[in-house]
Amino acid sequence: MPFWPSPISTRDVAAAGVRPGWPTAQDGRVWWTEDRPGEGGRTTIMCRAADGTLHELLRAPWSARTRVHEYGGRPYAVAPEGEVVFSNLKDQRLYILRDYGEPKPLTEEGCRYADPAVRDGEVWCVRECHDEDGKVTRAIVSIPLDGGEIRVWATGCDFYASPAVSPDGRHLAYVCWNHPRMPWDGTELRVASLAGGGFRTVAGGPAESVLAPSWKDDSTLYLISDRSGWWNLYESGLDGDGLRALHAAEEEFAPPPWRLGGQPYTPLGDGRLAVLHGRGDLRLGVLDPASGTLTDLDVPCGGWDAGLSAEGTSVVGVGYAPTLPRSIVSVDTASGASTRLTREAARLPDPACLPVPRAVESPVPAFLYPPYGPATEGVPPFVIFVHGGPTAHAETALDLEKAFLTSRGIGVLDVNYGGSTGYGRAYRERLKGQWGLVDVADTIAAAEWLAAEGLADPRRIAVRGGSAGGWTVMAACCRSEVFAGGVSYYGVSALAPLAAHTHDFESRYVEWLVGPEDPQVYASREPLALVDGVTCPMLLLQGLDDPVVPPAQSEAFADALSERGVPCTYLAFEGESHGFRRMETRVAALAAELAFYQQIFG
Length: 602
Known about the structure:
- The strands form eight sheets. The chain has an eight-stranded mixed sheet with strand order 30-31-33-32-34-35-36-37, sandwiched between helices. Strands 25, 26, 27, 28 and 29 form a five-stranded antiparallel sheet that branches. Strands 1-2-3-4 form a four-stranded antiparallel sheet, with no helix packed on it.
- Helix 4 crosses helix 5 (468-479).
- By secondary structure, it is α+β, with helices and mostly antiparallel strands.
- The chain is 16% helix and 34% strand.
């Protein structure tokens, strides 16, 4: 019997989904969002006063979440007077909240808004509108806080991000790009005159990804560019003149911008920059722009989300570690002292039950989480985790889903297959035109490595993943008999229907990942066309309100398996989208996954 009792229950894992994000430091106070699976997955806004008192600003049924690009991003901004502007999930309108009162609408229904910032009585943000024919248009707009006409400042491109007004109010910097590119392929940084109109391109192009501009002064910008092959920090004049790297390194200073509003660096009051950098997980450091000196801060968090905010010489962000849940953490860069401003709402297990990952080459970068528990005879079973994206990476944050398995005697290997971020543009582009080949080959090779090293029982290795990771799971099970079973969460099974029906942001992504539509090429890659190769049982889980990977993707693969007599369980959840947010869904999905492993490993 490969399993033993564990102190970590399905409800413990589901309750641990309370997740803070998007901190803002101002006037001694700190604001942030907080996802709550126990409240139907809604997102509230919290504020910590200077005296440490916590206030919840949004009560149910309000939920601060934007659906721009469907993945959303920063949904709120704080005005200089402490007013909060936020996007409400249900109607996607912008609201303003004053003095903890009832939110008042700033916009009409019909459009979505993200990445807001308040400046001179207006909120500047990205606006996304959908017409009756399904056409999507985006622009950078400003909206008066006291009512009035919405002004459009940049339009004509397919996508916009990171609007930033110069300190003197004369210029607007922003990032834009067009189909078929994704923002990690190629973007442009433009600067527009707010008085005379027109714009100039400061940096970027079809083969350069420029991200996260901010103003150093009225005529100088900070920006992140991967022109060297790595996302590094640069400084530039308004015409792109004098562009210089602040600290050239074969490291990433930003993650891929799946969501709008990420800020992987922020100016401190003394002129230095608090920055994130590293390979894979990003560490927190302080960079002197004048000398290029970069000094890491000695803090308990080994990784940070791209959402920093600073006041004076203190920086606030979302930090994590293998035994530390995602938390709002304040760091005094002068003394190095750090303070957790949030605490996990749910009970955490004994730290001895929490697996600490070990970085391995397997033969691709991966994190090994050994099983924990009573000594047993034989070699343990393993589950290979395949991250989504696929332009993303496995991180080492505390993950009770992994601890749920390792505390029961099941090891976990989390792989960063070719195409993963955090290792430079060349590694990212290993997947260009090769989706369904490189990711699958790397995942299969990782399983074979586990067996060859004697770390896993070769008859008891499973694979699981979500979204793009679900595609890799299904494709790997089609192409290899090394797996005892596969678990796909809202995975992709067919390419042409995905390109035809997915949302606008990723509607051309398949062209980069595989190539232009070609029935023969698509049939050689997609799991639905290769389903005859599946010999192991599979578990498929799907949200029925998913706009990113429509339910038909999982349904079609489940039907094809059943027609061939391959054991398959398909579970669909009403009211869930791309990523399960509700407590009851998370409990049911994890219980089904554990039962599946007990069946195939037992």
